[in-house]
Amino acid sequence: MRLVILGPQGAGKGTQAEYLADKYGIPHIATGDMFRWAIRQGDELGRAVKDYVEAGRLVPDELTIRVVSERLDADDAASGWILDGFPRNLAQAEGLERLMRSKGRELDRALVIDVPEDVSLRRTLGRRVCENCGATYHEDRPPRNDWVCDRCGGRVVARSDDSEATVRERLRTYHEQTEPLKDYYRERGRLLEVDGTASPEEVFERIVAGL
Ligand SMILES: [Zn+2]
Question: How far is the CA of 172 from the centre of ligand 1 (A)?
Fold first, then answer.
């Protein structure tokens, strides 16, 4: 099973990607993890990526595609994978298509999880995270004791990068650059679009039924 998963912030992509990875025994490859993996390899490509990541700059499409290519050749990805956070624009989608062709493989599905903007904002802005271990919570699903982490006892706080302005900006980028990929994959008969407003378990059932 070779999948890409797309959706706006707060759609629950990461959660669904984890569920899918478990069910199908394939790696969940999130873009940030993939860049860290590349940097750990310590080769010329990893060093090029490191320069961008350390400077806090966006890794250019061409370089990103080369990292994807190496990552998909790793042993754990031999029977499939789920890419989360890539492709994020048309150039990357086309790059992935060329890559698949050069490897003699095919992308099975592009899974899009849709949620309306108000849901996206509510879910994202309500997010809370443990300062110590990174466990995630939500205003609507707090830890058992007064914002003290269930797992490690650390302090549970709002994520500093989740202000309403930054979330709106990221949503705008998603609508402009990533959402057009729906048409791209629809034309290629690969699109699976799922309503992400239900519970994570229900959304997962719909995805599995659609695959
Ligand atoms: Zn914790």
Answer: 32
**What is the residue range of 31's domain?**
2-115+179-210
57 part of a folded domain: yes
- Are 61 and 89 within 8 A, CB to CB? yes
What is the whole-number distance in angstroms between the Cα of residue 162 and the centre of ligand 1? 19
Q: Is the residue at 152 inside a domain?
A: no
> Is 45 within the bounds of a domain?
yes
Give, as one character, the DSSP assignment of residue 195.
E
User: How far, in Å, is the centroid of ligand 1 from the Cα of 176?
Assistant: 36
Q: What is the pLDDT of residues 92-149, one digit of tens each?
A: 999 999 999 999 999 999 999 999 999 999 999 998 999 999 898 988 889 999 899 9
Residue 70 is assigned to a structural domain of this protein: yes
Measured at the CA of 166, the angle between CA 117 and CA 16, to 5 degrees, comes to 55
Enter the pTM of the model: 0.88
Pairing of strands 109-114, 2-6: parallel
Q: What is the pLDDT of residues 75-102, one digit of tens each?
A: 999 999 999 999 999 999 999 999 999 9
The count of structural domains within the chain is 1
Q: What amino acid positions are annotated as catalytic residues?
A: 13, 88, 127, 159, 170
